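Hi V.,

You were right to ask for the full record rather than a summary. Here it is.
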Amino acid sequence: MDGMLTQAEIDQRIFDLYDEYCHGDIDRRTFLSRAAAATVGGLTMAQALMPRYANAQTISFTDQRIMANYVTYPSIGGSSGMMRGYLVHPKGKGPFPVVLVIHENRGLNPYIEDVARRLAVEGFAALAPDGLSPVGGYPGNDDDGRDLQAKLDPARLRTDMVNSAIYLHKHELSSGKMGVTGFCWGGGTTNYLAATLGADVKAAVPFYGAAPAAETVSRIKAAMLINYAENDERIDSMWPAYEQGLKAAGVSYEMFKYPGTQHGFHNNSTPRYNEAQAKIAWDRTLAHFKKHLA
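Predicted structure:
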């Protein structure tokens, strides 16, 4: 994160505006102009929040411990009938426990690919599907990626993620034990998949994701590890009702809310990243998958 402003140097009002921008409520120009008007140095703070993906790579594409390639597979009922994803696994034939990694609301960017590699070096076969593949794939920048994803039919996009999970679960590399994790939109979709796929998902770790529909919570059979940011009212406000449903259904769950964090705190390509809390959350994630998918 060399040369970046740190999280502590950025006004909370700018984080709040960035959250609106990230979720498509305002465009880039509006975000920058409102940030500039909000506080002295607001424009500089806003510009600092734009992702720098060179920082996101923690495991090299060419790391000798892993094998990675892009795969295509059918997705009946999805956006186009076909999907593409980034499949990465430890060296060897397996089988391995498998984890589906679901991106934010902007397609398969370099940060999410790195998360898949982080899982592979820990012994998992990970598939990171690109929800934008039916419209040409992640376009190389988050602004265009966010616009593309916003134009997709939400139900068909979720069907693409369901089909990605089914493809991974049945893959020749798979041990038959599957976990799911995801971030932001992918966190909400992780919750959705846990409810939709029932016993096929053994463990799920949503990061700051929207709760699933209340009437579906009882279908969850996965062990849930639910990660929230402290400063994320839009998502955190869903927790009490979600927890009530989990308790009523007898679902095994743990919830952690990470102090001093913003929505997106695990993403190490922007100053929303909180290194200490992201490490704690990731260590918990790995331990959760190793416990339930071994």
